[in-house]
Amino acid sequence: MGQVFLLGAGLGSIDFLTMRGRDLLARADVVIYDSLGSQGLLDLLPDGCLRIFVGKRGGKKVRFNR
Known about the structure:
The chain contains two helices and two strands; from the N terminus they run H-E-H-E. By secondary structure, the protein is of the alpha+beta class. Helix 2 (39-42) links the parallel strand 1 (30-33) and strand 2. The longest helix has 9 residues, at 19-27. The protein is globular.
């Protein structure tokens, strides 16, 4: 059975991410994120991790990264 973790982006800088958060991202199979997450967080994801973008910013079209 799988597990689901909720990980907040905090202040937006990867410098404030906890070690536990880094570990969870490094092992993730699927990540659901919005436009408040930084690219630095996504860079921690392993190859093959499914990335699902679920948010947009004022007037911009939604893009999906898979």
